[in-house]
């Protein structure tokens, strides 16, 4: 250690660990604790060295404001408590704020339709993931809600489009359709007549009328082709 380091430590001990006779009747340390560490202790006891708020502009502003002084919108300040105490207080208030909406929303949710997408075996073996790439889109103009997804293994070259009216009492035509990516894409790539099969890496709605998809060749070979395609919903 350099002399500068030793001086720094000595100054630290002198400043923060002087004897404090006024604390002798309290349990625990009889010295002033380091002023940052006291805020991080997970205890409900008051801080040994609370901050000095004299001259703080924010506190002065609140004291002089008739409307803000008792405002329920301001989180109460606990100058004698640690950050752990304040954190628990804030979590309790947030939980109270979220409980009512959770109850209301939970009671309002109901099943609009049930579709069987695939069946799995009844064995106790772990079921493989067959559902992938869910992407949601809400067309506010026509009040239609869309879900894009793919089904692994059985139909890797297809992308499924599920659509429902936001008004659950109404139905839409072609509620579930599948789009298959096959050899029709070859003419836009090269003149080869080879049959190619593509699987969907990703798919998102570009706008209310267009879907953007990223495709790849399904054959196992180096230099697989990647295609960025835009499909009109029509």
Automatic annotation (TrEMBL):
Swiss-Prot/TrEMBL GO biological process terms: anaphase-promoting complex-dependent catabolic process; cell division; protein K11-linked ubiquitination
Print the keywords alphabetically: Cell cycle, Cell division, Mitosis, Ubl conjugation pathway
Q: Where is the Anaphase-promoting complex subunit 4 C-terminal half WD40 domain?
A: 136-234
Q: Which Pfam families match?
A: WD40_APC4_C-half (PF23405)
The record's InterPro entries line, in alphabetical order, gives: APC4, APC4_C
The protein, known as: APC4 protein
Cellular component, GO annotation = anaphase-promoting complex; nuclear periphery
| UniProt source species | Nothoprocta ornata
């Amino acid at each position: 250690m350099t002399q500068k380091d030793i001086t720094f430590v000595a100054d630290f001990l002198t400043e923060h660990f002087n004897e404090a006779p006024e604390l002798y009747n309290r349990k625990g340390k009889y010295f002033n604790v380091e002023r940052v560490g006291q805020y991080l202790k997970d205890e409900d006891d008051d801080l040994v060295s609370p901050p000095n708020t004299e001259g703080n502009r924010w506190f002065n502003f609140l004291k002089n404001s008739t409307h803000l002084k008792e405002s329920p919108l301001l989180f109460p300040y606990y100058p004698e408590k640690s950050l752990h105490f304040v954190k628990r207080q804030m979590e309790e208030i947030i939980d109270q704020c979220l409980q009512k909406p959770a109850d209301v929303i939970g009671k309002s949710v109901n099943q609009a339709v049930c579709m069987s997408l695939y069946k799995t075996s009844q064995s106790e073996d772990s079921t493989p993931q067959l559902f992938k790439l869910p992407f949601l889109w809400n067309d506010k103009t026509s009040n239609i809600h869309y879900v894009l997804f793919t089904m692994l293994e059985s139909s890797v070259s297809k992308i499924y489009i599920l659509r429902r009216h936001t008004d659950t009492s109404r139905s839409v035509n072609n509620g579930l359709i599948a789009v298959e990516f096959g050899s029709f894409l070859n003419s836009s790539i090269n003149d080869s007549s080879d049959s190619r099969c593509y699987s969907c890496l990703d798919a998102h709605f570009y706008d209310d009328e267009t879907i953007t998809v990223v495709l790849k060749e399904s054959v196992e070979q180096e230099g697989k082709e990647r295609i960025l395609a835009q499909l009109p919903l029509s």
